[in-house]
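Please discuss these two lines.
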Amino acid sequence: MNRFNESTTSIKTGLLFCLALLCFISCKKEPIVTITSDQVNITTFLDKNSDKFSEFRRILDITGTAGYLQAYGTYTLFLPTNDGVKKYLQENGKTSIEQVNVDSLKDLVRFHLIEDTISTEKFGDGKLNSLTMLDQYLITGATNVGGITKVTVNRQANLVQPNIRLGNGYVHVIDNMLRPSTKTLAKAIEANPSNSIFVEALKVTGLYDTLNVLPENNNIDLQKKYMTVFVESNQVLANAGILSLRNLTDKYSPNSTSYKDLNNGLHMWAAYHILFYAKYLADIVSSQGHPTLARPEIISSQLKNEQVLINDIMFNGTYEPGFLLSRTTSDNSAINGVFHYTAPYSPAGAAATTGHFAVKKRDPFPVYWDVADFPEARKNPSFRKSGAVAITYAKSSATAASPIKGWWWPKTGDGVYYRNAAAGEPWVFADYLNLFLGNVAGNARQEFIEMKSPLIVRGKYAVWVCYRRRNQSGTYPTNIATQTRVVVDGDPLPITFNFGEPAPLGSTSELEALGWKYYTSTGNPASPFLKQTYNASGVYSNNPWISKRVGTIDIKTTDIHTVRLEAIQGSQNANDLDMIHFIPVDWSSQILPRFKVDGTPDFEPYPGTH
């Protein structure tokens, strides 16, 4: 089968925005309906509807692709009407299809075709996950004019009649021709005079050349085949007091003109604005961290109130406001990727930012992660509300989407329960997670649960798991509850822990040497925390809040990380997890602070035997 000598690539890069096409369509006064054919293929469909599509049919004849689209396969065609083709001709100073270069017409056909069957259910506010046969992406979105919502394609055409199901795929009728990108990222960014200072910085650092390579000439490094650029316009730079390239060099490289050196300040600044792969806005908000060319530095992202925020984080207890990516001027396609424009951000209760940003270099710092604090829990009325009912997070099927973004467990049913503390219990922030975790043949409990950590700065960390020792039935070690391994970004830590395992006895220093500590605090030096006890028979007789060191991990990138709890053996519902501590191995203390119920850190060293 003729493939126009072009390869087709399907790149699946994450979730679309929450604003899906069905929401767009629901605003329309006229419903969009699906038309099903009796196995008529695309070319035959055009022939049967020549009054609407004869111009595009002529393009197929001239390019020799009519037979290709008559063959069976799986395609999606964005089909311009006759009026749409005539608009294209008029805008390009042509009066007939025959006046357009044949190679250009072939590119146009490829750009309107995707070798995949895509209905509007897969549309959203962002790019389609499959490349066109020209190896460029299409983006879809919506505009509202006069109370009527119109679905747009590439901001160049409106969707007129979608979801025409044919024998070899889908046809979506549009009212204009789509224009493929003809410039590389470097050339497309340079084409706007308002980007002149940013472009000068790219040129003196050599990164302009990196962004000026066609994808087919850059296949050795697949990460750089398609790239993403965050552009700071002259106005954004002016907002930060930067009016020229000289201002930039004075700020980031005052003592060196070796701008192409990877460690040069200006080079780092420019490289920090470039991401690997083509990431449209939908891709950016689907992940919380993105590697940049300023390795190993990353940028963080989030979607808040329909705003795309970059580097807007809480770090070490301090809020650091970030900046916006402009929704209206971003998602600009180029041959080898996409570029976005930064914009100022005015967060409530904090100083406004300009849209200008620099590399955020971090030194390793402790992360005392309260695992029960995540967006889905915060949105629930029961969050940190004493006496409120538990919140159950379950999956309707094994393949269903997780009810907690970024988290995962493999089986149908319950994964985690969010619970508020009972009166008098010292859970940090008065809440915890009850994990439905176990590894017993035929058991419905989850064999593993994956969670997303807060931002952790690259470096070496001791990892401490903070839980309440508890056996659902029997006593330890006769009943081991759930023996669990911690895995960070695919790297298993060497020491397992058990939700029924008690801490040994000893002083604070003795416990630390054995890899144990108490992590809660009453604030009372006479009775700082509930200590481990045992009865006359040597059986542990209470359920204190304890923490076990499960190993050391070398965090390679400053990022949000995946932490998996794997059940090795045993099973119970009462796996109660409160916190996970990542503490730099060279930090001043692995023991302090302990934490009070309200989350207040307590740095008071409590001597004595526990």
Q: What stands out?
A: The chain has three domains: 21-174, 185-343, 367-602. The longest strand covers residues 559-584.
